[in-house]
Amino acid sequence: MKNVLLLFGLLLAISPNSMAQFNKDPILNLQSEDLKLLNWGYYLGINQYDFQFEFKNDIGQDILVDKSIGFNVGLIGEMRINEYLDVRFEPGLLYTGRNLGFPGFTSEADAIREVKSTYIRFPLLLKVSAKRFGNWKPYVTGGLYTSINLGSKEDSLDDNSSGEFRMKQNVYGYELGFGIDIYTEYFKFSPSIRGVFALTNELVPDNDPNSPWTGNINAMRTRGIFINFTFE
User: Fold this and answer.
1) Phi, psi for 155 (deg, rounded to 5)
2) Coil/strand/helix, residue 177
3) Per residue of the chain (232 residues), what is the pLDDT tens digit?
């Protein structure tokens, strides 16, 4: 998580024209950009996903999650409400990977489960912006999302006893974030950082209720962090 935040700061610092937008008296770019009723764009980004586990019994042995960096890509449709409020629909595709380490096994083949997920996401967000300062404008955003996990294996008849870790296909949750709109000469560039929190219990338990992998798990929910770079 710390590495992702550091990368966000570095990319913001070296982004094209980023520092020039903070001059005392800059030439104002795209002065009518925020007056449109509808606005369109796209975003690229990276993510790091984790899991939050709830256990039935506290046995003092946690499931370890080895996180990796994934990527995001998507489109943006924005409707202006007023000078400070916009509603945004940001459908996108997200790929991420996690390795789970289960305690109590002597064999790596039993202890490690690789979880690769490809999500199609449909977030509906409210963007709350501050007053524009020269060529930049900070904002916060938040809202709800639904997503489809194409790698869920929910309908598979095999479970962890056969090496298959299953998750639910449909996931619901919310996300919160903040960012900065930077008005360049030709387009609006917006780096942002988001926190993503699933409300759905995503675990499909093993067929055996006393499974050493899922028997003690009451719920498993995604937690993640995004860094998105938006072009409008």
Assistant:
1) -90, 5
2) strand
3) 555 545 445 444 544 444 444 455 668 887 777 888 999 999 999 999 999 999 988 876 789 999 999 999 999 999 999 989 999 999 999 999 999 999 888 899 999 999 999 999 999 999 999 999 889 999 999 999 999 999 999 999 999 999 999 999 999 999 999 999 999 888 999 999 999 999 999 999 999 999 999 999 999 999 999 999 999 9
Parse the chain into domains and list their residue ranges: 2-12+44-231
Interstrand relation of 136-149 and 217-231 (parallel, antiparallel or unpaired): unpaired
Whose CA is closest to 196, among 42, 74, 88, 48? 48
Beta strands in the chain (DSSP E): 38-55, 64-67, 69-80, 85-89, 92-101, 112-129, 136-149, 170-183, 188-198, 217-231
Half-sphere exposure at residue 7, Cβ-oriented, CA atoms within 13 angstroms: 15
Does pTM surpass 0.85? no
Which CATH code for domain 2-12+44-231?
2.40.160
Separation of alpha carbons 225 and 232, rounded Å: 22
Coil/strand/helix, residue 1: coil
